[in-house]
Amino acid sequence: MSSKLVVGVLALQGDFERHLFRLNALGVGGREIRSCEDIEGLDGLIIPGGESTTMSLLIDRFEMRGCLSQFCRQKGVWGTCAGMIMLAREIDDERVKPFGVIDIFVSRNSYGRQVHSFFADIEANLNGQIKRLKASFIRAPLILNYGSNVIVLAEYNHSPVLLYQNNCLASSFHTELDDDLTLTKYFLENFVLVYK
Ligand code: GLN
User: Vertex 144, ends 140 and 145: CA angle to 5°?
Assistant: First the structure.
């Protein structure tokens, strides 16, 4: 992977460190993003899992809504779990103000509470090849409906859990908790490099 790539991870709260480890493991420069200035020169962005109500609040408090919203409409962006919620068109919780870049209607916490977190092996269609991924669902968001521009790459229990629209990839689960770099690599090659 090109060492010239710089990919940011939104670091206002949530599970940003493990994404940075994954990027470093692939030889990509990772950068913690906490202000609009930090976004300058980035080739791509990951919005990590965490708590979307808090994340949405902090985005406004740090005056990052405008620059993040613009970045999400131009460059390769990947939202995992709470990050997926931030990319959605609509959420079933009006405290969260999403960027509206993926045409999905999302219900927060619909796979159950923290104690109901679980791992599942899912099969994803990545560039026409079926790849097995170990997915961690931690108070994960459920997609209730999606528009015709959304491409679904993996489902769990008949609901989409990995999908994209244009330059934005989203997963309702975490993959950064174990050592599998498949999805990070897929994001870099198919979103960051393509929309650079
Ligand atoms: N339930 C969280 C939310 O609504 C997301 C959980 C996660 O990111 N693991 O923001």
Answer: 130
- Percent of the chain surpassing pLDDT 90: 88
Q: Which atom of ligand 1 is nearest to the CA of 138?
A: 9
Per-residue pLDDT of 114-151, as tens digits, reads: 777 889 999 999 999 999 999 999 999 999 999 999 99
Q: Which residue's CA lies nearest to atom 8 of ligand 1? A: 49
Q: Do 8 and 39 contact (CB within 8 A), yes or no?
A: yes
CATH of domain 6-192: 3.40.50.880
| Annotation marks residue 94 as catalytic | no
Q: Please, which residues bridge with residue 91 across strands?
A: 106
Whether 158 is catalytic is no
Residues 176 and 18: beta-carbon distance below 8 Å: yes
Asked whether the CA dihedral 37, 16, 92, 124 is positive or negative, the reply is positive
- Residue 104 pLDDT greater than 80, yes or no: yes
Please give the model's pTM, rounded to 2 decimal places. 0.96
* Residue (of 55, 66, 57) closest to 9 by Cα position: 55
Q: Separation of 136 CA from ligand 1 center, angstroms?
A: 12
Backbone angles phi, psi at 73, to 5 degrees: -100, 0
Cβ–Cβ < 8 Å for 162, 48: no
